[in-house]
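Lab notebook page, bench 4
Experiment: in silico fold of construct C2
Operator: M.H.
Input chain length: 255 residues
Purpose: comparison with the prior construct
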Amino acid sequence: MTLPQLDDAGRLQLASLLEDLPQNTIPLHALRTGNGRFYADDAAAAVEPSLLPRELNGFGPPDRLWRLLRGIPKWDCVLVEREDARELGRVIEAETGVSVRYFDDVEYTLPGPPLVPHDDRVRVLGPDDLPLLESRFGLVGESADAARLLLDTGLVAGAFDESGQLVGQANNHARTDLHAEIGVGTDEAARGLGLATSAASLVASLVMRDGLVPVWSTGEHNAASRRVAEKLGFQEVWRRTFVIPDRPVAAGAVG
């Protein structure tokens, strides 16, 4: 059986229960804006932001969360608190026979101004830049819709090479009352030139001007992303764990 998604009243009620912590910035933003898929029962909840398709944020005890997850269609992984990850994985393996793997998501915050200033290779992108950003959608997400979502709901700084081509970007794709999540993307050929660092510095400075704490999250094995964050002065504050079935678990397939 496939679960129905929460209606607007349900997602806003769930948002009111979610504490405004750095690690909750992305799911809380999704809940408040309605950009995503949302599921909950009386003991667990799952949030899939539109900009992170098939990637769930899970909340609740592992056994109750699994009861919810098995009714959700088309998901690849779920991000949970580290202390719950192995138990959730054991439940999934026991009930489905599907092997599970794990890796950590590292959460950073920036306690002060960026240590590396931005430069004239980057500028803030506005609504008129949508066609440009859409043409380079690989820099921002899995589809051209990601460019529109970023410009509609967030802040985007573009990084340009010497020929004037857009080769990188940094964005504030989620914000709450206290925090602002920053993400980056750079063409492979333009990496190592400091463009992502410069663009992220601009975005971080602007969200701090708004009174928000910049947040950066990345997989533990993403050394390049972690290097950029640490170069800017971000400090690790939390870790959660992705639970990843080796193949999709069909909704309603487990009784």
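Observations: The chain has a mean pLDDT of 92. The radius of gyration is 19 Å.
Next step: discuss at group meeting.
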